[in-house]
Amino acid sequence: MRDALLATVIDEHATVEAFASLLAYEEKALAAVSPLEMLPAIIEKKNELTGQLASLEKARDAQLRELGFPPGWKGMELAAANDERLAGHWKLLQAVVQRARRANTNNGLMIRVRMNYNQSALAILRGAANKASVYGPDGRMAGV
């Protein structure tokens, strides 16, 4: 059973690595002038990887319970305490999770900045449109 838990942790590590790589690609897309061409495929892949991670976490928790450990981080810490291979892979998983978390936070900030910029630009354009409406659709001055 410990071998199954180890295999699950290794699979989780690989999946989080893929997710972190995708976040790096997303960061490049968000920095591009026109990210809309790349973002739908990125979002679709992120959703797929998130689903895989949820399944792997569920499997890991079930394996921990079968070994007599509590689920989650606490159970993994206890299981890894007596297994050097498991401890090494658990440490690798934790490191890549932290890297992915930082990248995701950074991308969220980039999205927020872009949204604020777009909202400011729209406000300026709306203000200019309201001021520019001196002439009506018929080409005559409004109110005359």
SSE layout:
Elements lengths: L1 H30 L7 H28 L5 H10 L2 H49 L12
Distance between the termini: 85 Å
Let me know the average pLDDT.
Answer: 90
- In one word, what is the shape? rod-shaped
Please tell me the total number of domains.
Answer: 1
> For the record, what CATH class applies?
Mainly Alpha
Query: Would you give the CATH topology?
Result: Methane Monooxygenase Hydroxylase, Chain G, domain 1
Name the CATH homologous superfamily: FlgN-like
Can you count the helices? 4
Biggest sheet: strands, sense, closure? none
Q: Would you write up a description of this structure?
A:
The protein has a single domain, classed as Methane Monooxygenase Hydroxylase, Chain G, domain 1. The relative contact order is 0.12. The protein has helices at residues 2-31, 39-66, 72-81, 84-132. Helix 1 (2-31) packs antiparallel against helix 2 (39-66) and helix 1 runs parallel beside helix 4 (84-132). The chain has 144 residues and is mostly helical. It has four helices and no strands. The chain is rod-shaped, with a radius of gyration of 25 Å.
